[in-house]
């Protein structure tokens, strides 16, 4: 029995809410149970120096946790003077995930930065960030099309992410913090709606897990991502 009472293949309650900020060109509040992440997409009419004059755009991401997003207050990374290795790793993962489904050449020389700010953390902040960031990015592209800056939305597929793990010997979908902190194996899957694999992160916390267990985790991840992609389509269709 999982601490939450969920079935092994059951997601937490997922909510994707758009239009949650006044100024960002795209915004989404992604809620995976008690993990809440605010994702905002900002359009900039410039690209990094190494892309100037090449006719290509860029999509990047930044990630951070608010001081009281966890049970005890943490210092802001700005106050410490540098980002942690974890923060840098997660924001690079988000950026890679979004670029994997974006036609950068079709963007022209435009950059979109997606900021993912964790309001409340209960496990799976990176997967919630990626899922919500896709929605915010899509909305920013919609705005560029409406203003005539782009002829069409340069997105080639949907992308979403979910965590899976081995908890008390069982493969389970969408770990919350209690499960994650006591898991025998923890994996994050970034997958596309069409069945593609963008990235898989997996770690055995105790003894190595088997290929058969990994395949079961992959099966659960596909179920979860299919559900998340359906939620993405549903919320984006409300903006048309």
UniProtKB/TrEMBL annotation:
It is an enzyme of class 2 (transferase). GO terms for biological process: rRNA 3'-end processing; rRNA catabolic process; tRNA processing. It catalyses: tRNA(n+1) + phosphate = tRNA(n) + a ribonucleoside 5'-diphosphate. Gene3D superfamilies: GHMP Kinase, N-terminal domain. It comes from the Bacteria. Its EC number is 2.7.7.56. SUPFAM superfamilies: Ribonuclease PH domain 2-like, Ribosomal protein S5 domain 2-like. The keyword Cell cycle does not apply. This is Ribonuclease PH. Belongs to the RNase PH family. Keywords: Nucleotidyltransferase, RNA-binding, rRNA processing, Transferase, tRNA processing, tRNA-binding. Phosphorolytic 3'-5' exoribonuclease that plays an important role in tRNA 3'-end maturation. Removes nucleotide residues following the 3'-CCA terminus of tRNAs; can also add nucleotides to the ends of RNA molecules by using nucleoside diphosphates as substrates, but this may not be physiologically important. Probably plays a role in initiation of 16S rRNA degradation (leading to ribosome degradation) during starvation. Pfam families: RNase_PH (PF01138), RNase_PH_C (PF03725). Homohexameric ring arranged as a trimer of dimers. One of its GO terms (molecular function) is 3'-5'-RNA exonuclease activity. Phosphate binds at residues 86, 124-126. The lineage of its organism: Bacteria, Pseudomonadati, Pseudomonadota, Alphaproteobacteria, Rhodospirillales.
């Amino acid at each position: 029995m999982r601490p939450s009472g969920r079935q092994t293949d059951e997601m937490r309650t997922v909510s994707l809410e758009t239009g949650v900020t006044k100024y960002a060109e795209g915004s989404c509040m992604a809620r995976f149970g008690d993990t809440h992440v605010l994702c905002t997409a900002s359009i900039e009419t410039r690209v990094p120096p190494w892309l100037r004059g090449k006719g290509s755009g860029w999509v990047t991401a930044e990630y951070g946790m608010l001081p009281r997003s966890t049970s005890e207050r943490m210092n802001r990374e700005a106050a410490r003077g540098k980002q942690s290795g974890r923060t840098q790793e997660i924001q690079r993962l988000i950026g890679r995930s979004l670029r994997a489904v974006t036609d950068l050449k079709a963007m022209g020389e435009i950059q979109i930065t997606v900021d993912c700010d964790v309001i409340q953390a209960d496990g799976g902040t990176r997967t919630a960030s990626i899922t919500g960031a896709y929605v915010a990015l899509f909305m920013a592209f919609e705005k560029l099309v409406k203003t005539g800056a782009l002829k069409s939305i340069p997105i080639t597929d949907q992308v979403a992410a979910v965590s899976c793990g081995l908890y008390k010997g069982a493969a389970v979908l969408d770990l919350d913090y209690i499960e994650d902190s006591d898991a025998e194996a923890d994996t994050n899957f970034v997958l596309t709606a069409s069945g593609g694999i963008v990235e898989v992160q997996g770690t055995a916390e105790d003894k190595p897990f088997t290929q058969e267990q990994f395949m079961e985790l992959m099966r659960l991840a596909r179920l979860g991502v299919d559900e998340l992609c359906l939620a993405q389509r549903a919320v984006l269709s409300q903006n048309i």
